[in-house]
Write a structure and sequence with these properties.
heterodimer, A: about 525 residues, alpha+beta, MetI-like fold, 3 domains, five-stranded antiparallel sheet, 16 helices, 13 strands, about 15% strand, globular, disordered N terminus, B: mainly alpha, two-stranded antiparallel sheet, 2 strands, about 75% helix
């Protein structure tokens, strides 16, 4: 079809009337909104990891402060603008933010000697590194201080890694056996030995003290073991910054959260999301395909089937929170409560399965996404020409053989599309999870080296809930914002990739089998 | 399979038995799965019934206490209140459902106010005006928009848009005033362009080349906003709102919720409405054009009347989604159970209430059952609305089929 309005540009020019432009504008506005949202998430989410320069601001009255520029807004009383700096040093200032009136700024400088320390407590420190005092009372000052600090931090990281490995792989399983009263004498000895090794490692950590000074001259003595990382952003070149940026992104993806979910990484949340979604797809795929095959291939195609089909389709439109309520009432309180009474009576009143957990969450989401899989599979089945089925039957195949050898292989891409769409929907759902098993902080991931390896009753962390929790239950939202952006970006990326795969598959399917016959 | 013609009777018997067994299993499994999904409604109803049954519970619950204003301590006149007292705090629980229902409907209504014009405009444009290549790209893009998780939209609305609008209220209002005339102006200018330039900026691609124009309008608005605020509202829009209209501006309010949820439901309305509009048989469109109608006249006089039920069902499905959306309302509204008509106040929806309160409520208690009643209301509402929309849609499809346009 060639567009007729292009053939007669003259009439189109005068005749379309003004309203057509509002219609065009609403498409443009929707696209702009979408681009704005994605752009915002991308810029803020990725920009957070960039090691930006630290400014030393000298005010007119001689006061000095050091920090990273966050934003600039007009003053509330009209003229002039003010700028927000993130200054860190919560232990010294009781706050990590400083508002500065632009008119009061005398000078802004970026001295290369400024260090940014990331600490286990109190967050960031921004200031100068004066000296390192070693255990033996030695004092390292001057040029070599920074190099000495870097060397020590590398050694410290190695120590920490080895302690973590010991804790996770040796001590924790032994402690569990001890608690269960199953530990043998040999195991007790092994535990004592491992704990001694941990103490040994901890003692071997360099117990040096850093002497730090803020830009306005206050001194601080900081034990080295508390320091996670040290940077001199002003002294770094662009390549070095890119490398640091990449490493920080990786740390965000691979580490656990710190400071009440306002700092650190999201690895447990990623892991929890993926594990939950995988379990869900294991539940939903066979049942969804079964129901679709029944509806489309086995059931008598009458009025009742049509109504059931409409009903199933509509269940996809039922709010997710309703599924959450169902999951809580039936799975958690109903089935879970009974399971506890029967099998885990020894640990009552503290519930085992009678509270939200991984199993119930994935079952609830499986129920929630069941209609998606059924509808997609049915579409795929309806697309297969009747001649294929008739051919198979004519050659003497039974119905089961016709289904398993001819129909289902042809419908595989459709099923796959359905499952991917289900996964994409499930990965973004948060509301039902709040009722059936998500946790703001789950120290133990539900999959580990202890029997039975997969702990279906444990609570788990979830990317979407992590966003909600950090945004609404954290203390300092402003400080958590960059991390929320990064988490949101990650979640959106995961869902976009899943959806794109589904769209691609569906397109592929359409071009192979033609369009769907409408019923 | 290859032995089929000469397979011994025993083998054939085995195959037939297996087939019958499998068919029975599929039937049982299929019915079981479908029954399990349908069980949701039954479960909710069964759990809610004891609420009106047992009379020993305190506070007493009946239809009157739920839906009519009640006398509470500390209020001179009967009022609607939703104030479940947490067990550890003690005190009297107040269970009037109306504030929650009101909040739910208010949020959904504002969402539709934002989403419906955008979605229907976009659907009309992409069904009738847009070039086919762009349309093939646009539909998946808006599908991606639909897949945007509610928690992300809610976060952006609650923590980015709300504080921004808090400061730039005048700019937001100016944008609302400037954008429609600005787009009309774009149309006027386009008609005055030379034919060569017009061919380079075809109507079919307007969705893309209007983007820079929107940016320009944004710039114009941010220049105009302080001036407008100074002329009309004495330099402070919020003070003016408070003094002359008596409206108090809450940081997270119904408008913010409406914008965020409008963004979330717009793609689904668009997709269904576009299907309905573009499914109208070509013969009708071509007939109208042959008689000399412009495309807009064709849309208004021919396509829209034919596809009207489909468009309506799209809006209904959008309404169903808006009513049940949880995370956006939870994060973008103040979660205050108010019953005011002011769009600048906060609200609390049923879905958000369930999400917050249900994990705390004691199973089997009054509060628990009331929240389940809210869930039941949500379920019944969305199920009915969706069924209605689906019936309308399937009727429409058959009608198109009769009209001869195989779409």
């Amino acid at each position: 079809m060639t567009a007729p309005w292009r053939r007669s540009p003259k009439r189109a020019a005068s005749g379309e009337g003004p309203w057509a432009w509002l219609a065009a504008g609403s498409v443009a506005a929707s696209l702009a909104l979408l681009a704005l949202l994605l752009g915002l998430l991308a810029v803020r989410g990725l920009g957070h990891f960039w090691p930006a320069d630290v400014a030393v601001v000298t005010l007119d009255d001689g006061r000095q402060l050091a920090g990273r520029e966050v934003k600039e807004v007009p003053l509330s009383d009209g003229d002039g603008r003010e700028r927000l700096y993130r200054t860190g040093n919560r232990d010294l200032d009781d706050a990590i933010w400083a508002w500065v009136d632009l008119d009061e700024i005398h000078e802004v400088d970026h001295p290369s000697g400024l260090v940014v320390l990331e600490r286990r407590r109190w967050g960031e420190f921004i200031g100068r590194l004066e000296a390192i005092e070693t255990e033996s009372g030695e004092r390292i000052v001057g040029e070599s201080t920074w190099l000495a600090l870097e060397r020590r931090l590398t050694a410290l990281a190695a120590h920490r890694d080895s302690i973590d490995v010991l804790r996770d792989q040796t001590i924790r399983p032994l402690v569990h056996r001890l608690e269960a009263g199953e530990a043998t004498l040999g195991e007790r000895e092994a535990l004592a030995k491992a704990q001694a090794r941990v103490h040994e490692r901890q003692a071997a950590m360099p117990a040096d003290t850093l002497v730090l000074e803020t830009v306005d001259g206050r001194r601080l003595r900081q034990p080295l073991t508390e320091v996670v990382r040290a940077l001199r952003p002003n002294a770094m070149g662009v390549t070095e910054k890119v490398v640091t940026w990449g490493r920080d992104v990786w740390r965000f993806l691979s580490e656990g959260p710190r400071a009440a979910n306002t700092a650190g990484g999201v690895w447990p949340a990623i892991f929890g999301t993926i594990l939950m979604v995988v379990l869900m797809s294991i539940f939903v795929t066979p049942f969804g395909v079964l129901a679709a095959v029944y509806l489309n291939e086995v059931a008598h195609q009458g009025r009742l089937t049509r109504w059931v089909r409409i009903g199933v389709r509509n269940l996809a439109g039922v709010p997710s929170i309703v599924y959450g309520v169902f999951g809580l009432g039936v799975f958690v309180y109903g089935i879970g409560g009974h399971l506890d009474d029967w099998f885990f009576a020894s640990s009552l009143p503290s519930p085992t399965f009678g509270t939200g957990g991984l199993l119930w969450a994935s079952l609830t989401l499986a129920l929630l996404t069941l209609p998606v899989v059924i509808v997609a599979t049915e579409e795929g089945l309806a697309r297969i020409p009747e001649s294929q089925r008739e051919g198979a039957l004519a050659l003497g195949a039974t119905r089961l053989e016709m289904l398993t050898r001819v129909v289902l292989p042809m419908a595989t891409p459709a099923m796959l599309t359905g499952v991917i769409l289900a996964v994409a929907r499930a990965a973004g759902e948060v509301a039902p999870l709040m009722l059936v098993g998500v946790a703001k902080l789950a120290p133990q991931v539900p999959l580990d080296g202890e029997f039975p390896f997969l702990h279906l009753e444990r609570k788990f962390m979830h990317l979407g809930y992590h966003i909600f929790d950090a945004a609404f239950h954290g203390g300092d939202v402003q400080a958590a914002m960059p991390l929320i952006y990064a988490t949101a970006l990650l979640l959106v990326l995961v869902i976009l990739v899943l959806n794109l795969t589904a769209i691609f598959l569906r397109h592929h399917l359409r071009s192979r089998h033609g369009t769907l016959p409408k019923y | 399979m290859q032995h089929t013609p000469s397979s011994p009777p025993l083998r054939r018997h085995f195959r037939q038995t297996r087939d019958r067994l499998a068919t029975a299993l599929i039937t049982a499994g299929g019915i079981g799965v479908i029954a399990a999904v349908m069980a949701i409604g039954v479960f909710l109803a069964v759990e809610v019934v004891p609420l009106f049954w047992s009379s020993t519970d305190t506070p007493r619950i009946n239809l009157e206490t739920l839906w009519l204003p009640q006398d509470y301590e500390g209020h001179r006149t009967p009022v609607h209140r939703w104030q479940p007292a947490m067990p550890e705090e003690g005190g009297e629980s107040r269970f009037g459902m109306l504030p929650l229902v009101w909040g739910t409907l208010e949020a959904a209504a504002w969402a539709l106010v934002i989403a419906v014009p955008l979605a229907l405009g976009a659907a009309a444009h992409s069904a009738l005006f847009m070039s086919r290549r762009l349309r093939a790209r646009l539909k998946p893009t808006l599908e991606l928009m639909e897949a945007m998780p509610g928690v992300v939209v809610g976060f952006v609305a609650g923590l980015v848009l709300a504080p921004w609008l808090d400061v730039h209220l005048a700019l937001g209002m100016t944008l609302l005033i400037i954008l429609p005339p600005g787009l009309l102006l774009a149309g006027g200018l386009w008609a005055r362009l030379g034919a060569g330039l017009r061919r380079r900026l075809p109507m079919g691609w307007a969705a893309l080349w209007l983007l820079p124009w929107l940016l320009l309008l944004w710039g114009l608005s941010s220049w105009l906003a302080p001036l407008l605020e100074a002329w009309w509202f004495d330099g402070d829009l919020r003070a003016w709102l408070e003094v002359s209209l008596g409206l108090d501006y809450a940081n997270r309010n119904a408008i913010i919720v409406g914008m965020a949820m409008g963004f979330a439901v717009m793609p689904s309305i668009y997709a269904l409405a576009e299907d309905a509009l573009s499914g109208v048989p070509k013969s009708l469109v071509e007939g109208a054009e042959a008689l000399g109608a412009t495309r807009w006249q064709t849309l208004w006089k021919v396509v829209l009347p034919a596809a009207g039920p489909g468009v309506l069902s799209a809006v209904m499905i959008g309404a169903g989604r808006a009513v049940g959306e949880t995370m956006i309302v939870l994060m973008a509204s103040g979660n205050t159970a108010l019953m005011t008509a002011s769009p600048l106040d906060g609200l609390r929806s049923m879905a958000a209430s369930i999400a917050i309160e249900l994990p705390e409520a004691a199973p089997g208690g009054t509060h628990y059952r009331l929240l389940l009643l809210a869930a039941l209301l949500l379920f019944v509402f969305t199920f009915c609305v969706n069924t209605l929309a689906e019936v309308v849609r399937s009727r429409l499809r058959r009608r198109y089929h009769r009209m001869g346009g195989a779409s």
